[in-house]
C-alpha cells in the first residue's frame, strides 16, 4: 500500500470536519480550503493547514474552482483529495484533474463516475445488469417540442431530475405538459449552479413510494460489499430530512434482493470506494425500482456506520491506499462478517424556520447547546455559541444520529437528544423534527415520500420558553442597571446576612397537626370540633397577609421554604398557616417572577401536617375582575388539589349571592369553606349603614349557603374591643358556626380586640409571628399566646419555639426593608379612612411612584371622602383598590368631592372606577349615589346582579393549552 500522509478536503463545514476527524485518527495531516465568506467557519480552523480558494468568486463558485483547488493541493504537498458530498464530489473532470496532478482522488475512477454519475447512462447500465428501473427518458434536448414528445411517451405525472447531481437540486414534479417548459428552465438553472452541468431527464413519478438506498463499498482489487440499506422516505422538496437504517418495512427476502441488485450494478462497472444505489419502492406493491447512483459518500452515511460499525470515511482512505476489503487494515470486513447491529436514525438540524416555509435563517448563535450521551452521535459544522451563520451555503447546522437496540429505543433516544438542544439567535427546525419522529406514521415505519407534504400537524409547534436566555438577559440587566423594583429605594446598609434558622432536627417526621385532624374528621365534623373544644385556635399569617401588609407582598418563596420544615415541627399546634391567595398570586408572577403554584406545591411538601389557608375573592378568585363561574370552580379545584385545606371566601361588597359559586365549589372538594363577613364602619355609629343586624343577617345567609366556618374579616383593623365583643356574641347566638376573627394592627391596639374576641367566645384568631406583626400587619402572635397562657383558652403553643421562628423572620424582614412604608407607629387615623392594612403599604407605594408621597395625609383623607362619595361601601380588594385609585386621582388633579359631583365639570374617571360602577368586578351595581353613578357611567346603564351569571363559560382546555404553550408547564 502507498500510505497517504496529507489529505486536502475539497469541501466545507460538516463533511470537511468529518473527514478531518477520520484523518486525525489515522495520523494523516489535513488541509482545508475556504471561500472568503467562510473565513470564520470552523472547518478552516479544524485542519492542520487552511487556504482561501476562489478569491474574488461567488461563495459557491469558489468551491467549484477546480484549477485553484489543484493549485492549493500542489502547494500544500498533499497526497490525496477527498471531495466530500456536493460541490465537485461527482464531477469526473475534477477526478481527472487530480490524476493529472499526481494526486489521488478518494472516490471512483472518472469513467465510472461518468457512467453512474450521469443518471441517464446509469439507468441504461441498470437495465443491462438486470436491475429493475422506473420508466424514464434519456437526457432531455433543449427543444421543447422534442422534450414534450419524450415526456408523453413515458406518461404524466413525471419527476424532472438533474443528470449530474442529487440532494434535491434540479428536481421538480411535472403534473401536466404545460408545466414542463417552466420546470425545465428552473431545473437546468439549479443543476448548473450546483453541479456545473445543466443536463436533466424525466422519470415516471411513483406517488406512494418509499425511498430506500443501499450503501456499497468497493476496493481496487475487485471486491465489493454492501452495508445494507437506509430508508430516506422522510423528505421535503426531495431533500432528505430524517434517515434510518435498516428500512423498517423490508423483510429479509426483500432486503437480500435489494442489496444484491445494488451489487449487480456496481459489479457491472467495477465500482470502487463508497457509493449509494438508490431505489424507489412502491408502497402498495412492494416492487422496487433503481433510480440513481451517488458515486460519493452520502450525508446520511452515519446511520449505516452506526448499525454496521464500519467507518466509511476511513474505509475510503484505506481503499485509496490499496487495501483489500476483508483485510483487517481495510476497516471493511468481508460480506459474511458485516451484520446489522441494532437500529439508527439521523436528523438534520438546520437553521430554517418551519413556520415560514422553511426559509433559511442566518445570524449569530447567541446560545448553542447540543445533545450528548450513550447512543447519540453529532456531526456538526460551524455550530457553537457565537458562531455566525451566513446566508451563502446550505442551512445544515448539525446532524444527529441516534442508535438503539430496537427502532423504539432509537426513536426515544433521538427524541431525548432533540429536546436537549438549545439553539438561540437563529431559527431552527428542532420543533419540526420532534413532531416528525413522534408522529405515529413515522414510528410505525410506514412513511412514504409524501409524508411531510401530506401531514399538516407536523407544523403545529409549542413555542420554546428559552428560559436560559431570559434568565441571562435578566441577570445582565440587573447587574448593569440594578433591579427595577429597587429603583428609588435605598438598599439596606450593611446588607443583612442569612437569617438564623431555628435549631431543630429535621430528620424525623413532623408530629400530627390540624391537617391530620381534618383528614380524620372530614369538614363537617372538623367544624363541629372547632366550636366544641375550649382552646382558642391560632392562624399564623406570616406567609401571606403579614408580608402583604408590611412590604407589598414582596417576600420570595425561597425565604418561606427555608423555614417551612421548622414550622412543621415547631408549630404543629397552629390551627392554620395562611400562605396563599390574596395578592400573593398576582405579585408572584408580576414582580417576583415566580410561579405561585410551585410555591404552593413546595410549601405543601415541606409542611404536610398543618392546614393551609388561602384568601379567595369569590367571583374574582385571586384577580381583580369578575370571572365566569366555571373558571372559579376550576381554580378552586386546582388549589385544593395543590394543597389548600381552608378557603377563606369573601365578596368585596358582602354580596352573599356572589359567594355561592365559590362556597359550593369548596364544599365539592371536601375542604373547609370559611365564609367571611367584611367588617367596615362602626356598628355603634347610627350614621353608617352597617349595624349589628346587618352582619348577623349576612352570617345567617352564609350558614344557609353552606359555610363550615364564619370569619370576621376586619381588613382595616377598626373593629374595637367593644364592637368585636358584641359581634362575636351575636354571631354565636345567631348561627351554629365556629367564628374566626381576622384583624390588622394599624391602630396599634388590635391585640385588645383579639383578646376581647377570645373572651367573647371566638374559636380562632389570626396573628403574625412577633417579628412580622404590628402596624398594618396582624397583632403579635407570641404576645397573644403569652397573654392567654394558663387560662381556660390557652392555645398551648410552645413560646420558645415561636421565638425561634420569630428570630428567623426578624432576619428576613431586614432584607425587605426597602419595600416597607415609612410607618413608625400605629395610627388612630385608620378609624377615619378605614383603609385595609394590606392597602396602606401598596397605596403609599403608588403615591411614591406618582411623586405625591409627601402628601400622604391628603391621600388618606381623600380615601375617606371617596368612600362616602361612593355611598359608604365595603372596602376590600378589589373595591378598596378602586377607592384608592380615585383618591390618588383626586389628589393628583387637585379635585374635591364638590368638584367630582359638579355636573358642569367634565371628568374622565379612572378605568377601575367605571368598572366598579358597571358591576364588572363581580359586584352588584347597587348602593352608589345616583347622581355620581350617572356621571361616572355617562349614560351607560349599570349591569344588574352578578355579571358572572350571564358571562359565557371559558373553554378551560383551550385556556390551559395556551398557558402550557406560553409557559411550557
UniProtKB/TrEMBL annotation:
Domain ATP-grasp: 123-321
Zinc among keywords: no
UniProt KW keywords: ATP-binding, Biotin, Ligase, Nucleotide-binding, Pyruvate
Highest rank taxon of the organism: Bacteria
Every Biotin carboxylation domain range: 3-457
Keyword hit for Kinase: no
Single GO biological process annotation from the record: gluconeogenesis
Organism: Pseudogulbenkiania subflava DSM 22618
InterPro entries: Aldolase_TIM (IPR013785), ATP-grasp (IPR011761), BC-like_N (IPR005481), Biotin_carboxylation_dom (IPR011764), Biotin_COase_C (IPR005482), Carboxylase_cons_dom (IPR003379), CPAse_ATP-bd (IPR005479), PCB-like (IPR055268)
Xref: Pfam families: Biotin_carb_C, Biotin_carb_N, CPSase_L_D2, HMGL-like, PYC_OADA
Residues of the Pyruvate carboxyltransferase domain: 536-803
Listed name of the protein: Pyruvate carboxylase
PANTHER family: PYRUVATE CARBOXYLASE, PYRUVATE CARBOXYLASE, MITOCHONDRIAL
GO molecular function: ATP binding; metal ion binding; pyruvate carboxylase activity
Record's GO cellular component terms: cytoplasm
Amino acid at each position: 500500500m502507498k500510505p497517504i500522509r496529507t489529505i486536502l478536503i475539497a469541501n466545507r463545514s460538516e463533511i470537511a470536519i468529518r473527514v478531518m476527524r477520520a484523518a486525525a485518527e489515522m495520523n494523516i495531516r489535513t488541509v482545508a480550503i475556504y471561500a472568503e465568506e467562510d473565513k470564520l467557519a470552523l472547518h478552516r480552523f479544524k485542519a492542520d493547514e487552511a487556504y482561501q480558494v476562489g478569491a474574488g468568486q461567488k461563495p459557491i463558485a469558489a468551491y467549484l474552482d477546480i484549477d485553484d483547488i489543484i493549485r492549493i493541493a500542489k502547494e500544500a504537498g498533499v497526497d490525496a483529495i477527498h471531495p466530500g458530498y456536493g460541490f465537485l464530489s461527482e464531477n469526473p473532470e475534477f477526478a481527472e484533474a487530480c490524476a493529472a496532478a499526481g494526486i489521488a482522488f478518494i472516490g471512483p475512477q472518472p469513467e465510472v463516475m461518468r457512467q453512474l454519475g450521469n443518471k441517464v447512462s446509469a439507468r441504461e447500465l441498470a437495465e443491462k445488469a438486470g436491475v429493475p428501473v422506473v420508466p424514464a427518458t434519456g437526457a432531455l434536448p433543449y427543444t421543447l417540442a422534442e422534450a414534450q414528445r419524450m415526456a408523453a411517451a413515458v406518461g404524466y405525472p413525471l419527476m424532472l431530475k438533474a443528470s449530474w447531481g442529487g440532494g434535491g437540486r434540479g428536481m421538480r414534479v411535472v403534473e401536466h405538459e404545460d408545466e414542463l417548459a417552466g420546470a425545465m428552465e428552473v431545473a437546468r438553472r439549479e443543476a448548473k449552479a450546483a453541479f456545473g452541468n445543466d443536463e436533466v431527464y424525466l422519470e415516471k413519478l411513483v406517488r406512494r413510494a418509499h425511498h430506500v438506498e443501499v450503501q456499497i463499498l468497493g476496493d481496487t482489487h475487485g471486491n465489493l460489499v454492501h452495508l445494507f440499506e437506509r430508508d430516506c422516505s422522510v423528505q421535503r422538496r426531495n431533500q432528505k430530512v430524517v434517515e434510518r437504517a435498516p428500512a423498517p418495512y423490508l423483510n429479509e427476502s426483500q432486503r437480500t434482493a435489494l442489496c444484491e441488485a445494488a451489487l449487480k450494478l456496481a459489479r457491472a462497472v467495477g465500482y470502487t470506494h463508497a457509493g449509494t444505489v438508490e431505489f424507489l419502492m412502491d408502497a402498495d406493491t412492494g416492487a422496487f425500482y433503481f433510480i440513481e447512483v451517488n458515486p460519493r459518500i452520502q450525508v446520511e452515511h452515519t446511520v449505516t456506520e452506526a448499525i454496521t460499525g464500519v467507518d466509511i470515511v476511513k474505509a475510503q482512505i484505506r481503499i485509496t491506499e490499496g487495501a483489500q476489503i476483508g483485510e483487517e487494515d481495510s476497516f471493511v470486513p468481508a460480506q459474511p462478517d458485516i451484520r446489522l447491529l441494532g437500529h439508527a436514525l439521523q436528523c438534520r438540524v438546520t437553521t430554517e424556520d418551519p413556520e415560514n416555509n422553511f426559509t433559511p435563517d442566518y445570524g449569530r448563535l447567541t446560545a448553542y447547546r447540543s445533545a450528548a450521551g450513550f447512543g447519540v452521535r453529532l456531526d456538526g459544522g460551524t455550530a457553537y455559541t457565537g458562531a455566525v451563520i451566513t446566508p451563502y451555503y446550505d442551512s445544515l447546522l448539525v446532524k444527529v444520529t441516534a442508535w438503539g437496540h430496537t427502532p423504539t429505543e432509537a426513536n426515544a433516544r433521538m427524541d431525548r437528544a432533540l429536546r436537549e438542544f438549545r439553539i438561540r439567535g437563529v431559527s431552527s427546525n428542532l420543533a419540526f423534527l420532534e413532531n416528525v419522529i413522534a408522529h405515529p406514521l413515522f414510528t410505525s415505519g410506514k412513511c412514504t415520500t409524501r409524508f411531510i407534504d401530506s401531514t399538516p400537524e407536523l407544523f403545529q409547534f409549542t413555542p420554546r420558553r428559552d428560559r436560559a436566555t431570559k434568565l441571562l438577559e435578566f441577570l445582565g440587566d440587573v447587574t448593569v442597571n440594578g433591579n427595577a423594583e429597587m429603583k428609588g429605594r435605598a438598599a439596606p446598609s450593611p446588607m443583612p446576612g442569612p437569617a438564623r434558622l431555628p435549631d431543630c432536627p429535621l430528620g424525623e417526621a413532623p408530629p400530627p397537626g390540624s391537617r391530620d385532624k381534618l383528614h380524620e374528621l372530614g369538614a363537617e365534623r372538623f367544624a363541629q370540633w372547632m366550636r366544641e373544644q375550649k382552646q382558642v385556635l391560632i392562624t399564623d399569617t406570616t406567609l401571606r397577609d403579614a408580608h402583604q401588609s408590611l412590604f407589598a407582598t414582596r417576600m420570595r418563596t425561597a425565604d418561606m421554604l427555608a423555614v417551612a420544615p421548622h414550622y412543621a415541627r415547631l408549630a404543629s399546634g397552629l390551627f392554620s398557616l395562611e400562605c396563599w391567595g390574596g395578592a400573593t398570586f398576582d405579585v408572584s408572577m408580576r414582580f417576583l417572577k415566580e410561579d405561585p403554584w410551585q410555591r404552593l406545591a413546595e410549601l405543601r411538601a415541606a409542611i404536610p401536617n398543618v392546614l393551609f389557608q388561602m384568601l379567595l375573592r369569590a367571583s374574582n378568585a385571586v384577580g381583580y375582575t369578575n370571572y365566569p363561574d366555571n373558571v372559579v370552580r376550576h381554580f378552586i379545584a386546582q388549589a385544593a388539589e395543590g394543597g389548600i385545606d381552608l378557603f377563606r371566601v369573601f365578596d368585596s361588597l358582602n354580596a352573599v349571592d356572589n359567594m355561592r359559586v365559590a362556597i359550593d365549589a369548596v364544599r365539592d372538594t371536601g375542604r373547609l369553606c370559611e365564609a367571611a363577613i367584611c367588617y367596615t364602619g362602626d356598628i355603634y355609629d347610627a350614621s353608617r349603614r352597617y349595624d349589628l343586624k346587618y352582619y348577623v343577617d349576612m352570617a345567617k345567609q352564609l350558614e344557609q349557603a353552606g359555610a363550615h366556618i364564619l370569619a370576621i374579616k376586619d381588613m382595616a383593623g377598626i373593629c374595637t374591643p367593644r364592637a368585636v365583643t358584641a359581634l362575636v356574641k351575636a354571631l354565636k347566638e345567631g348561627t351554629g358556626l365556629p367564628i374566626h376573627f381576622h384583624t390588622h394592627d394599624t391602630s396599634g391596639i388590635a391585640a385588645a380586640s383579639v383578646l376581647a374576641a377570645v373572651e367573647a367566645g371566638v374559636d380562632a384568631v389570626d396573628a403574625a409571628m412577633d417579628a412580622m406583626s404590628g402596624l398594618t400587619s396582624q397583632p403579635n402572635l407570641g404576645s397573644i399566646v403569652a397573654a392567654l397562657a394558663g387560662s381556660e383558652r390557652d392555645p398551648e403553643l410552645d413560646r420558645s419555639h415561636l421565638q425561634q421562628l420569630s428570630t428567623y423572620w426578624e432576619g428576613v424582614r431586614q432584607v425587605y426593608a426597602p419595600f416597607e412604608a415609612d410607618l413608625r407607629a400605629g395610627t388612630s387615623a385608620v378609624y377615619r379612612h378605614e383603609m385595609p392594612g394590606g392597602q396602606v403599604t401598596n397605596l403609599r407605594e403608588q403615591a411614591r411612584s406618582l411623586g405625591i408621597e409627601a402628601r400622604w395625609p391628603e391621600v388618606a383623607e381623600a380615601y375617606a371622602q371617596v368612600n362616602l362619595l361612593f355611598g359608604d361601601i365595603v372596602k376590600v380588594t378589589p373595591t378598596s383598590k378602586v377607592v384608592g385609585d380615585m383618591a390618588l386621582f383626586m389628589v393628583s388633579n387637585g379635585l374635591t368631592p364638590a368638584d367630582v359631583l359638579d355636573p358642569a365639570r367634565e371628568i374622565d374617571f379612572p378605568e377601575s372606577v367605571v368598572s366598579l360602577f358597571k358591576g364588572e368586578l363581580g359586584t352588584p351595581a347597587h348602593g352608589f349615589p345616583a347622581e355620581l353613578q350617572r356621571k361616572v357611567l355617562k349614560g351607560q346603564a349599570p349591569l344588574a346582579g352578578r355579571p358572572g351569571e350571564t358571562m359565557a363559560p371559558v373553554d378551560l382546555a383551550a385556556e390551559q393549552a395556551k398557558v402550557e404553550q406560553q409557559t411550557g408547564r
